[in-house]
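fyi for ur records
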Amino acid sequence: MRILIAEDEKDLNRLIVQKLRKENYSVDACFDGEEAISYLDVAQYDAVILDVMMPKADGYEVLKYIRSNGDNTPVLFLTARDAVSERIRGLDSGADDYIIKPFSFDEFLARVRAATRKKHNTTVNVLKVDNLSLDIGKHLVERGGKAIELSPKEFALLEYLMLNRGIVLTREQIENHIWDFDYEGGTNVVDVYVRYLRKKIDTDGEKSLIQTVRGKGYVIR
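which gave:
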């Protein structure tokens, strides 16, 4: 899944990006509110993480921009302001969560997982299609009880397909969710990774779960 982080503390920004990418998220990062809005104009995200106090446009202004466009993408506020009134203001403004600095990264990641579950209308961390299961929190994939080793991008692709079970996803949709703006690769990257996945999950005579819809894209069902 794809996350946008807007945080003007560069060290913290860099550390959050590292943690999220280690968890298989595709991440775009910026340091001010205006830049965050620019990213939001050209990409769709599964969650947006905003520092409340940042230059050019603060977190409240960015959140207002998101919600004024009818965008219900989960928004998590980061702030050192811990007053109850500040938390109430953030939540009443349309934020989905309010995280106080300093914070535990384990808790932070759990809150991100909760936010992305909301985005995809699921309440569990374990996704299942037929006899294939994927544990988002533990990064485990099994089919028929047998563990399957996946690369981070393979895991991210399978997770995105399973979160959208039964929905045909275009190559553009998949690429935009799995790879961030820093990606420089071939135009057939989605097809390549679908082939990688099929080789790993469709073994020992198992039926193919990832199906090609000619002229449209891919679907898992």
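The chain has two domains: 2-119, 126-220. thats all i got for now
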